[in-house]
Amino acid sequence: MHRVILLLALLCFLRNIEAQSLFFGNDLSYVNEMEDCGVVYKEKGVPKDPYRIFADHGSNLVRLRLWHTPAWYDTLNAGKRYSDLQDVTKSILRAKSAGMAVLLDFHLSDTWADPGRQLIPKAWHTVANNLPVLQDSLYNYVLQTLLTLNRQNLLPELVQIGNETNREILLTEAQNAQNSPINWNRNSVLFKTAIKAVRDFQNFTGKNVQVALHIAGPEASDLVEKFWLYGVRDFDLIGLSYYWAWHQPTSIATTGAIIRQLRRKYPGKEVMIFETGYIWTTASNDQANNIINAVHPDYAPASPENQRKWCVDLTQEVINSGGKGVIYWEPAWVSSYCRTPWGQGSHQEHATFFDFNSNVLPNGGMGWMRHPFEFNTKVTAEKSPPRLKITLEHGHRSLTLQLNNAKTDTTQLQLLDSAGKIVVSQSFLPDATAPGFKIALPNLPGGIYVLQVSQQRQRWAVERVWLQQQ
């Protein structure tokens, strides 16, 4: 009877892990600045910490942008800089204190990076055309950022290399203005350099950080093939921006089909919506022009209810298509007396989850994360056949791996405990004539472990292992 109870508890535990594997994310990069500009976030009229608001409504991921040296802030408002490492450190602490994971968005620029602009940080401008030196600068920047955060126990769970990188990264203003085709020989080297910095960090510290690419627009996802062809393959996630205002007529259903296609084409790579947004009103609350104005005919007119419906329907489609999650862009960028480079106030206050008094909209998008989504068999139908079979032997003191269809390349095995710490790490060469590989286990506490197998620095298979107390 005791064993039955333990088994039922284990099954419940694993089901909870699966339920939590979907990311309900929000980009909260503007929150610190808004609060410094006098904004008081409220729920039901009562002031409340905004990170706590989002966590209480089901958010389990916070996305934060990082600019290299945003000196342009020095001439705005009180001259305080935001989205630099000091500001991001404060935000990560707030996110983790509220129990949420973090996606760190390396813009690799001093300012906004997007499909129309990928400007090199001023600090690297003189080496923009000296690829080896630029690689060195990029590598050290990414590595030192992660090392700095790790020393403070503020390591992000995920990082993205670049923001909406539909064009070549780290360009001078003159190069950016030319709007030339991507030089993939240069571009791929830079991405591989940044990713190597993340992987080297992992090797130095034993900590796990997932790496993402970020493309603007589902229909532009064929760019992933270019990355792949030029050898940029050591990533974990593909992030897509999807806004009706800019990516119409692409529908939610078409976006789901593209997610399914990406998952089939790149097995082992997760796919997420890294940015979406939808307006709840066409009105404005300040002097800054609003950047989103279009509404989908099925989600019209603009209203809190239709904002929520957009988020719910998109998330359900992502779930049905086997996606990893959805992140809403700037749901807390409300109006304030402060200025941006383009006007006073916010360019997004009509698409936040707050009304014009910075109070949570009762029927708005904030509720999308608590919607009773359907987790059905469509997700599992898209998964590849099992690649790895695990057999535990000798009182759970050793295990045998059987690899199906593995390459005869050096294979890295890692066993991680529930805190993500590597407790076993071993390399071996698969033998096609004897696919089983046996390893001894150290004296480990009983519990759930994750076995991760990698080939050519790419995750090849992941399975959970339940070890009994030795």
Could you walk me through the main structural features you see in this protein, from its secondary elements to its overall organization?
With 470 residues, the protein is α/β, with parallel strands linked by helices. The protein has two domains: 18-381, Glycosidases (TIM Barrel); 388-467, Immunoglobulin-like. It is built from twelve helices and 19 strands. It has helices at 2-20, 31-36, 50-56, 85-97, 131-151, 173-178, 184-205, 223-229, 244-247, 252-265, 304-320, 378-381; strands at 23-27, 42-43, 46-47, 61-66, 101-106, 158-161, 210-216, 237-241, 270-275, 325-328, 339-340, 343-344, 388-393, 398-403, 411-416, 422-428, 436-440, 447-455, 458-467. The chain has an eight-stranded parallel barrel, surrounded by four helices. Strands 16-15-18-19 form a four-stranded antiparallel β-sheet, with no helix packed on it. A hairpin with a 2-residue loop joins strand 11 (339-340) and strand 12 (343-344). Helix 5 packs parallel to helix 7 (184-205). The longest helix has 22 residues, at 184-205. The relative contact order is 0.10. Mean pLDDT is 89; it is low at 1-20 and 377-385.
